[in-house]
Amino acid sequence: MLMSSGCGGKFLQEELVKGIDKEMEAEWKQSGRTSGDLQYNPNILVIAVKMNTIMKCTSFCSRSTNLIKRLYHMSKYTVEIPNVSIGQYILNGFNKRDDKIALVEGITDKKTTFAELHEQIQHVTSNLSALGFGPGHVACLCGFNAPEFAHVFCSVTLLGGALTIANPQLTAGELQTQVNETGTSVLFVTPDCVEKAKVVSQTSKQIRHVIVVGHHHELPTLEKLMRPRPHVTPVVVDPASHVALLPFSSGTTGLPKGVMLTHRNLVAELAALSHEHFLPFGDGDSSLAALPMVHIAGLVIGLLNPLSQGAAVVTLPRFQPDTFLASLEKYKTTFSLIAPPVVNFLATDPSVERYDLSHWRTPYSGAAPLGKDLTETVVRKLGLTGLRQGYGMSETSPATHTTPLDWWKYGSIGVPLPNTESKVVDIDTMATLNAHAHGEIWVRGPQVMKGYLNKPEATRETLMEDGWLRTGDIGYYDDDGHYFVVDRLKEIIKYKGYQIAPAYLESVLLQHPAVCDAAVVGKAHPVHGHLPTAYVVCNTSVTADDIAQFVNMQVAPYKRLRGGVNIVKELPRSPSGKILRKNLL
């Protein structure tokens, strides 16, 4: 029996810690890893259990307590990460699914089986290779959603190249900047972006080919690349070091930066998502992909995750309310990635009730945390068992946290995905915080980026030497290990030394019956720092003073909307649904 007091008890505690340290060291050496790779070893969970038992029996010295804290933030789930390219990993998911539907174009109802998709990808890979595309090359995909985005991604990565994805709303100048920074040599675009692509290809000398994903009378099309050609052998890559995907960070807190995601990053992400407690797809499951697939969440979670598990994906060019609802009903899809504006639409628009959405078991929201009231409204209205949430960023492939299938909480972004560590850090002292304490969320895991493209200083600011990534999000975790996001670190408003979370004031604004969307920013003030300033979208007639008074009566004096209230027609948002606060300043 363990002693809990006295010199003998303390000695025994220290000896136990030494023994556990040696056991950990042996595990690390045996696996060829360092202490920074602790989260990848499922055997460490056994050690965590041993230490947990000790904690229940005795009080620890500070050194052992710190060790317990670090282990506490590990995901309790693990998955194996195959040592293959991301393209091969996805193709492996097609096994034994030959006659099953893989892709459906939601507007035309055109269907592609897994056998057809596999063959088409092999042809595109061979024809793309014949154009001179190969290891180390970069292709850019810009446009509105199409089923053939799967062909482009798989073919580019099977040839050892990397794909950068670009928002179709970019100007020609903005697209050219991304093309130049990544060294893009092949530009894939949907018909809507052809004219923009022509301008870019004329000014960017490194672009050798522009290929249209869709119909076009003048330029080469992806359909031509699907013509039969002798198959080429996929390029052998080092999954841990070779870059497969180059999304650009959202730019909501700075200039856009290319994010280097390796094959291993993406394989680890898909393997984690497929875990039975998170986003598994079984027989009869399918995904409706309406959010932009040139955004990493739309690409990885909406398209690649279901395909890699042998599930069908119905694609829509973009989110349009009636088309989205009609497609959910027609195809009886069970999963769809959505964003907060879509959740708000589901909660407030009466047209939703005209559709049979009973098959839609998993609405999965990302981009920003959801309020409890909004979540409850949607759950009640649609008769759901829960509204799943996920959390992450381009730098993490993208997800690090997700609500487990059988363990969700209102407002929570979930728990760390398999193989992932997470902690909350004091923004001033960098000390690891306990449950319910607010600080910056840090994450570490195999899905964390290699770094920013050609931006070593930005990489050092975000990615620590021991593998921890600073998310820039303020949050906390509860006693059960569920995480909650409060706000963005760089968006915190500082008024007279007080720190004010915009998200809190936005939640109060949304309680006003006339307000249907809201954003709060800090307006610079020469003496007081920044004044909380609101921008709201209203659905009925109301004055700015009425709204300001409504909020100011409910918050602490220092949180009052001293910068005023502005009534606008709409708020600027990124394609993923995040409020572009910088556009309001």
TrEMBL record:
UniProt domain AMP-binding enzyme C-terminal: residue ranges: 505-578
- What is this enzyme's EC? 1.13.12.7
Can you state which reaction this protein catalyses? firefly D-luciferin + ATP + O2 = firefly oxyluciferin + hnu + AMP + CO2 + diphosphate
Where, by residue number, does the polypeptide cross the bilayer? Answer: none
Q: Which UniProt keywords apply?
A: ATP-binding, Luminescence, Nucleotide-binding, Photoprotein
Q: What InterPro entries does the entry give?
A: AMP-bd_C, AMP-bd_C_sf, AMP-binding_CS, AMP-dep_synth/lig_dom, ANL_N_sf
| Pfam families per record | AMP-binding, AMP-binding_C
Tell me the enzyme class. Answer: oxidoreductase
Record GO biological process = bioluminescence
Q: Does the keyword DNA damage apply?
A: no
What is the protein name given in its UniProt record? Luciferin 4-monooxygenase
